[in-house]
Amino acid sequence: MNGVKQMKYLNQNHQNRFNELILKSKTHQEDFERRSLLYVIAGNQDLYQKKDHLYDFIENWINPE
């Protein structure tokens, strides 16, 4: 694994949602800050339901409101 740790997910649903958000945001594999944010959003049902309000997937930034 070349020193890279595997991601640990809460469950399969968390992993699926995380992968969906990574693809939707076109996040680069080495963008650890954005990946961390999307990991948290994917792991929480309430945040995930509000993902489009929290994060602008077109501009790739956190919505300020």
SSE topology:
Layout: H1 12-25, H2 32-43, H3 45-49, H4 51-54, E1 55-56, E2 61-62
Antiparallel strand pairs: 1-2
Helix pairs in contact: 1-2
Descriptive overview:
This protein has 65 residues and is mainly α. It has one domain (12-62). The chain is 54% helix and 6% strand. It has helices at 12-25, 32-43, 45-49, 51-54, and strands at 55-56, 61-62. Strands 1-2 form a two-stranded antiparallel sheet. A hairpin with a 4-residue loop joins strand 1 (55-56) and strand 2. Helix 1 crosses helix 2 (32-43). The chain starts with 11 loop residues before the first helix and ends with a strand. The model has no long low-confidence stretch (mean pLDDT 92).
Strand/helix succession = HHHHEE
Strand residues, percent: 5-15%
Uncertain segments are none
Structural class by SSE content: mainly alpha
Ends apart, CA distance between termini: 39 Å
Over all CA atoms, what is the radius of gyration? 12 Å
How much helix is in the residues?
A: 40-55%
How many E-type strands? 2
